[in-house]
Specification:
The chain has 259 residues and is α/β, with parallel strands linked by helices. It has a single domain, classed as Rossmann fold (3-Layer(aba) Sandwich), CATH 3.40.50.720. A seven-stranded parallel sheet has the order 3-2-1-4-5-6-7, sandwiched between helices. Helix 4 links the parallel strand 4 and strand 5. Helix 1 packs across helix 8. The N and C termini lie far apart (37 Å). This is Ketoreductase domain-containing protein. It comes from Sphaerobolus stellatus (strain SS14). GO terms for molecular function: oxidoreductase activity, acting on the CH-OH group of donors, NAD or NADP as acceptor. Belongs to the short-chain dehydrogenases/reductases (SDR) family.
Length: 259
């Protein structure tokens, strides 16, 4: 049975003091904004990066933050990532944030098999491996939060992104499947589905005047999102404020899906 929401003042529900967070994709964009917000809420972070000295560590408030070096496209390296992070964080990880992802664009009839494999491995299999490792750690301890990053393409097919749409659709189902098993053990598995956000992953769309106009006109909020628009939801799903939120795909899209 899952724990009840603690009877504390509302703002205290969002505090992450004493919580250790493992986060991927934190060196830029949405992941970077999320990492900063988690540290501002009191968490201690372990950043996953390809670089031996990720610059984002210098932007995090608080102390004790660390990092592990890993190429998330190399599955054998990913299999030992969680244990490496545990060792760096004193044997305790309370929150896993799977934010890293890659994109490949091409007409489906021309889509390269290697591009398919790269996207599926990084955006889906790596997420699965880290979720599984986190579950093995968190379920026996009866506590934990896992946040996966889905997409609007968890629900829609998109254009010229068959691998990305397939991976993100599967991330949504994986989130629900793990939540069905682990919610009773007080491990909360949820996902965030960002809308159109101004990041380097979307630079080709932003540089295409026709697509930019088409997309922008359909967003009820009247603007594209920024990475900071995702930071609050990440803190929410990492905290006791979301104690009764399980298997949810939280859409943060300026109203796109409601259109």
């Amino acid at each position: 049975m899952a724990d009840q929401t603690p009877p504390v003042p509302a703002l205290a529900l969002f505090a992450l003091d004493g919580k250790n967070v493992l986060i991927t994709g934190a060196t830029r964009g949405i992941g970077r904004a999320s990492a900063i917000a988690l540290a501002q809420a009191g968490a201690t972070l372990c950043i996953v990066s390809r670089s031996p000295e990720p610059a984002v560590l210098n932007d995090l408030p608080g102390s004790g933050h660390t990092h592990v070096v890993c190429d998330l496209g190399q599955l054998e390296a990913v299999k030992s990532l969680f244990d490496a992070a545990l060792a760096k964080m004193g044997g305790q990880i309370h929150v896993l944030v799977n934010c890293a992802g890659i994109q490949r664009r091409a007409p489906s009839v021309d889509f390269a098999e290697q591009d398919w494999d790269d996207v599926i491995n990084t955006n889906l299999k790596t997420v699965w491996l880290l979720c599984q490792a986190a579950g093995r750690h968190m379920v026996p301890l009866r506590r934990g939060h896992i946040i996966n990053f889905a997409s609007l393409l968890t629900f829609q097919g998109g254009l010229t992104v068959p691998a990305y749409a397939s991976a993100k659709g599967a991330v949504g189902q994986l989130t629900k499947a793990l939540s069905n098993e682990w919610s009773q053990h007080n491990v909360h598995v949820n996902a965030i589905a960002p809308g159109y956000i101004v990041t380097d992953m979307n630079e080709r769309l932003l540089a295409d005047p026709a697509r930019l106009r088409q997309i922008s006109e359909r967003i009820p909020a009247g603007r594209w999102g920024t990475p900071e628009d995702i930071a609050g939801p990440v803190v929410f799903l990492s905290s006791a404020a979301s104690q009764y939120v399980n298997g949810e795909i939280l859409v943060v899209d300026g109203g796109w899906m409601g259109r």
